[in-house]
Amino acid sequence: MSEPHQDRAKRKLLAVFAHPDDESFICGGTLAKHAAEGYDITLVSATRGEMGRRMGNPPYLNRETMAAAREQELREACEVLGIRQLILFGIRDKTVEFMDEDGLAGRIASLIEEIDPDVVLTFHEVMGGHPDHCAIGKATTAAYRRAERRGSLYFITFGDAMSRPERYGHTRNAVVKIDVSAYLEAKLAAFRAHRCQTEMDEWVWLPDREALSRFGRHEYFLQADPILPAREFRDSF
Length: 237
Ligand SMILES: [Zn+2]
Fold this sequence. Notes:
Blueprint: H1 3-9, E1 12-17, H2 22-36, E2 40-47, H3 66-81, E3 85-91, H4 101-115, E4 119-123, H5 131-147, E5 152-156, E6 175-179, H6 184-193, H7 195-198, H8 208-212, E7 218-223
Parallel strand pairs: 1-2, 1-4, 2-3, 4-5
Antiparallel strand pairs: 5-7, 6-7
Helix pairs in contact: 2-6, 3-6, 4-5
Zinc ion (ZN) binds at residues 18-19, 22, 130, 133.
């Protein structure tokens, strides 16, 4: 095994999200790609997603059974994406925004210190959409600043909105555009692992080739602290 490969094998990525499925639906291709390239990936899911509105199709879950089912689905998704460690904070779904912000940031900062990641991924505290997303993104950003470790912080973004970042007040320099075309099978498998959330989406269950054609070739991330002026998208963390 060559030196560069060994170095690469030591690289670490910490993703801090809110719900089971955030990792697969938003950036499953990128996680699968980095796992395949030797990154040691740790995923934090703040909640177990027990307040999800989708209960299977036809519905077979209820509020009592949902948390365990979604945790199991998340474990299966981690398996297909190559995520090695899964940490569940056990915060009640839809209540992340009501958690003590300082305490939550402290918990994440401890993880950053322990893991010493090269890459931290989370939601943008404003563009995250769902209140749980924004809250975990805000706490992770605060934790990243507090920990003062090496490594870089990136925000996940939805779909291909950041293919034209100027529209949202960002420069191309701040955007990382990851080509995930070789990892779409893993991404589709992760979608299917989250069965109770995807059963209502007929396209997910079409024959593979048709389902795969629904995915974009790229996933986009915003760098928290872009430094170098550049005109084009970067293509790696
Ligand atoms: Zn979510």
